[in-house]
C-alpha cells in the first residue's frame, strides 16, 4: 500500500470507520461510537484499511495501537508498519497491541501478557452490599473532583500493564458523553474527598454495560475496596436489568483482579495476548 493512499481521519470519517470496523470485527460499531473513538485516538485510513494509536498522556511513553484491514486489501506487515510510524509521530516509545491468543504477534513485537475479555453469567449476583472499610464511603461521579479521580487512577494503575493513558481532561470528556454510565459509577472516597477506589462503566448498544476502569490505590489494597464497589455496581445493574455486562482484564494481573471477577460470576469470553515493541526513533 502506497503512502499516498493513507490520510488522517477526521470527524467526517466516523461512518466510514464504523463500517470498516463492523465488517472486519463482525461486531456492530455505530458512527457515534466511531466519533467518540476519533476524539481520543489518532487514526489514519486508506481505501480498505485503518490504523489507530492512543497516544500516551503527558509524562508517559506507552501507547496502544489497533487496526482494521479488509481481507486481501493489503499486506499485514505494511499495515503494522504504518501503525508503528503513526505511533512515532505522537510520542509513543512503547506500543502495545492485542491479538487473539491463537495468532502470532507481528515481527518486532514481544509477548507482554494475556488479556481476557469477560462477560457476566447473568445469574451470579451479590446477595448483599459489602461494607467499605472505614472511614471510606461510596460516592457518585458527580461528587468527586476529576483531579482526585485522576490521581487515584494513576496510583491504581502505576504497576498495572493494562492502562488507558487518559488525562483528567479526557476523563471529564468521556464522563460527559452519553455512553458514560453515570448512574452506575461507584467510587470509594475518604472524608476529605480523596478517591481510594473506583468502578466505572460505559453503556453499550442493546442495554449492555462495559465495566472499567476498576481499581484501588495501593495503600487501600487488600481491604475489600474493589470487591465492595463491584458488588454495589452489580446490584445496581441487576435492578436496572442491564446486560450483558462485560470487562477486560490482565489475565495475570499483579493484584489478582481476574480472580475477583471470576468469583462475581464473570466468565472468560475471549483470550487475547498483548504484544509490545519499542518504537524506533527517527
Keywords, please?
single chain, alpha+beta, Aminopeptidase, 2 domains, 12-stranded mixed beta sheet
What is the helical fraction, as a range of percent? Answer: 25-40%
Tell me the count of domains.
2
* Chain-averaged pLDDT: 91
CATH superfamily of the largest domain: Gcn5-related N-acetyltransferase (GNAT)
Q: Could you list the spans in which at least 5 consecutive residues all have pLDDT below 50?
A: none
Helix/sheet category: alpha+beta
Element order: H for helix, E for strand = EHHEEEHEEEHHEEEHEHE
Strand content: 25-35%
Name of the CATH first level of the largest domain: Alpha Beta
Largest sheet: 12 strands, mixed
CATH fold topology of the largest domain: Aminopeptidase
Shape: globular
Number of helical elements: 7
CATH architecture of the largest domain: 3-Layer(aba) Sandwich
- Number of E-state strands: 12
In short:
The protein is α+β, with helices and mostly antiparallel strands and 282 residues long.
Amino acid at each position: 500500500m502506497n503512502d499516498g493512499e493513507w490520510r488522517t481521519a477526521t470527524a467526517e470519517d466516523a461512518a466510514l470507520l464504523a463500517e470498516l470496523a463492523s465488517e472486519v470485527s463482525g461486531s456492530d460499531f455505530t458512527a457515534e461510537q466511531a466519533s467518540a473513538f476519533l476524539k481520543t485516538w489518532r487514526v489514519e485510513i486508506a481505501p480498505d484499511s485503518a490504523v489507530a494509536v492512543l497516544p500516551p498522556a503527558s509524562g508517559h511513553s506507552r501507547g496502544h495501537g489497533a487496526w482494521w484491514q479488509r481481507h486481501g486489501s493489503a499486506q499485514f506487515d505494511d499495515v503494522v508498519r504504518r501503525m508503528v510510524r503513526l505511533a512515532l509521530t505522537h510520542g509513543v516509545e512503547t506500543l502495545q497491541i492485542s491479538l487473539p491468543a491463537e495468532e502470532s504477534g507481528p515481527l518486532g513485537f514481544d509477548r507482554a501478557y494475556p488479556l481476557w475479555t469477560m462477560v457476566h453469567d447473568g445469574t451470579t449476583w451479590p446477595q448483599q452490599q459489602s461494607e467499605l472499610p472505614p472511614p471510606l464511603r461510596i460516592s457518585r461521579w458527580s461528587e468527586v473532583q476529576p483531579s482526585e479521580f485522576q490521581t487515584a487512577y494513576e496510583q491504581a494503575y502505576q504497576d498495572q500493564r493494562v492502562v488507558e493513558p487518559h488525562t483528567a481532561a479526557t476523563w471529564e470528556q468521556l464522563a460527559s458523553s452519553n455512553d458514560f454510565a453515570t448512574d452506575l459509577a461507584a467510587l470509594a472516597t475518604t472524608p476529605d474527598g480523596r478517591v481510594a477506589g473506583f468502578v466505572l462503566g460505559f453503556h453499550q448498544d442493546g442495554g449492555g454495560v462495559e465495566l472499567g476502569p476498576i481499581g484501588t490505590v495501593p495503600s487501600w489494597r487488600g481491604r475489600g475496596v474493589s470487591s465492595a464497589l463491584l458488588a454495589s455496581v452489580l446490584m445496581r445493574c441487576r435492578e436496572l436489568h442491564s446486560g450483558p455486562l462485560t470487562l477486560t482484564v490482565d489475565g495475570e494481573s499483579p493484584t489478582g483482579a481476574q480472580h475477583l471477577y471470576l468469583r462475581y460470576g464473570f466468565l472468560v469470553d475471549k483470550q487475547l495476548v498483548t504484544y509490545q515493541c519499542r518504537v524506533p526513533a527517527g
